Structures are given as C-alpha cells and as structure tokens.
Amino acid sequence: MRKKRVLLLSEGFGSGHTQAAYALAAGLRQLSPDVQTRVLELGKFLNPVLGPLIMSAYRKTVGKQPKLVGMMYRTNYKRSFNRFAQLAIHRIFYTQTEQVIQQLRPEIIVCTHPGPNAAVARLKRLGLDVPLYTLITDYDAHGTWASPEVNHYLVSTPVVKRKLMDRGIPSGRIEVTGIPVHPQFWQSQDQADARSGLGLRSLPTVLVMGGGWGLMEEEDEFFTYMTRWREEVQLIFCTGTNEKSRESMLADERFNHPNIQVLGFTREISKLMDAADLLVTKPGGMTCTEGMSKGIPMLFYKPIPGQEEENLDYFIGSGFGEMLQSTATIDRWFRLIQEPYSSGKRRQRLQSKSSQQYDPQECPSAVLRLMQ
C-alpha cells in the first residue's frame, strides 16, 4: 500500500518557517510509519537564482533596517492577499507550483509561510483538489496567513485562534496545536549527562543563540559583557550560519577561554538546551518554542519589530523569560544560576508549566487525525 504523502511548503525568510516544516515532517514520521514527507522552500526551489538573492536582500534589510521591517509588518497587518496579489505572487515566484504538486501527488499540503500558502490557495480556487493546511509559525496571526481556500489552520495559542476568528474564519477550521518542534525536543536529558556527552564542564551554563541566521555583530555589547563572568559561568555562543560573526568572536581574546565555546551551525541544540541553565536568544517562534519544551528560562534581546515582538509578549506573559534590558539583567541572572537548588527548582517549575500549556506531539498528531 502506498504511503500517504505530505508536502510541506516553506520559505527561508528567517529560519523558523522551514524549521517548523522539518519538525512537523519528523514528528509525522515518528508517529506514523505510513507517512512520507517532502519539505520544499518553494520559491528557492522554483527560482534557484532569484530566490537566494531575495533571501539575501531580506536578511540585510532585517539586519540594517529592522524598523522598516516592523513598519511593513504593521502596515499590512490586517490585509490578506487579495486575488490580484495572489496572481502577482504566483506569476513572479510560483509559476510552476501546480506542476510540482502534480509530480509529487501529495494527499495533503501544509504551508508554513504565507507565500506558498497564497499560491496553493489560488490553485485550489482554480480547481486543485488537495487539502491545504496552514501552520502559523509565530504567536501572532498576520493577515497574509488568512485565505478562504485553507481547509484547516494549526496555530500556537488560543489568542492566535481568536485573531483568526476575528477575521471571519470559522472556529471549526482552527485548531490550537502549538508550534511543532523536532522529536529531539520531546524529552529532556539529565543535565549532567548532557554536559558530559557534549564535553562541557560541570559549571553553571548559559546558551546564547541568535536564531538560524546566528548572532549579529551589532549585538556584541551584551555578549562581550558576558565574558566578564567566564571564571564562574560556562558560555556557549551559537552563531548559526553567520560565519563572519563566529570568526570575529574567535579573533577576540575575550572569547578565548576554556569556559567559552563559540559554535557555528550545529544540530545539537536539544542537547545544548538540556545542558544549559539559561537561554539567551532573540524571540523567534521556533527557538522560543524549543526552549519552552525544555523548560529552560530565557532572556530575550533585540526583537525584530513585528512578529518577534508578539512572541516576546507571549513568552514573558506566560512566565518563561524576561527582556534583557541591561548589563544588570545579566548580572542578576548569572548570579541566580550559580545557586544549584534554586536553579533546579526554577527549571522544574518551568517544565511543569510547559507540560500544562504545550504538548510537543500535538501538532503532528492533529495532522494525522485530519488525514484520516
């Protein structure tokens, strides 16, 4: 019997959309051996020359002009893609989408970015007979996610569900599933074992991340200040794909210490979160959901205006972290994690809170139920 095929379509504007697609794909395969998945960054796949240029331009805009990104997000917040916009998006970026779908013959399509979502919605309006599920990968519901052709929405929280309902989407077409994380994050490892397995020292440990694009050089004020604690605290900086940032940090003598590691891209984030006592991160939807699944306290820095601000509000309001306001915030938390009993109790409380609010298996389970 042929396996059920799930096509997951994303885009690389930030890493969270595609990470969510891969996480859902892995979760589906973990829960059901009868499911076959395929993840595509559709615009990049269809436009191998133009796609990376657009992503590079977007990345530079986020880094250099974040206020412009926020203004664009807020200006179009309530607007969905109308038929003209869908046509333009299809003609410019997604002209061969229908051929891809016909070739792969999926039972369902899951979109984790508004662009492919709009393209598939247009094809459905023109006669495509494949269910379309939309997975919103932040703790907000921008208008561009909404489309009458979507069969079902998978969202992070009841607040996001309410925002979609306010846009006229029936409650029965929206399910609160949380954002999926990779099965690696479904369970936590003992902290001492995680440190031992990663070759880390038995010290209070801080994991510093900047999302899939890594740490940006503009944020080095806080990071260099953290190195003042390098005798008492173990610091792990993950620069992701930002090799320039990694090279810059490695060339700085302040980061050359036995208790400091500067990592590039790594697939060990789950283990690193198990080993750490504190996560310092930008409030991207995926990274914060991974941190929540592990019950690790978080400090958030410099959110990109728009969805990251909404993510920030959610996680601070839910008690999973706070804003990194100043070096005084660093000093206070770096002292707190040196108290083993208090630090352990704090982690237990957050893990209990997380299990009450979030089931990491719910999103793939919901998709499997919808496929039946």
State Rg: 21 Å
Structural class: alpha/beta
Overall structural domain count: 2
- The 3D shape can be described as globular
The counted number of beta strands is 12
CATH superfamily caption of the largest domain: Response regulator
Order of helices and strands: EHEHHHHHEHEEHEHEHEHEHEHEHEHHH
Map the helices and strands:
Layout: E1 4-10, H1 16-31, E2 35-41, H2 42-46, H3 50-64, H4 66-75, H5 83-93, H6 97-104, E3 108-111, H7 114-125, E4 132-135, E5 152-155, H8 158-166, E6 174-176, H9 191-198, E7 205-209, H10 220-226, E8 234-238, H11 243-250, E9 260-263, H12 269-275, E10 278-281, H13 285-294, E11 298-300, H14 307-317, E12 321-323, H15 327-336, H16 340-357, H17 362-371
Parallel strand pairs: 1-2, 1-3, 3-4, 4-5, 5-6, 7-8, 7-10, 8-9, 10-11, 11-12
Helix pairs in contact: 1-17, 3-4, 5-7, 9-12
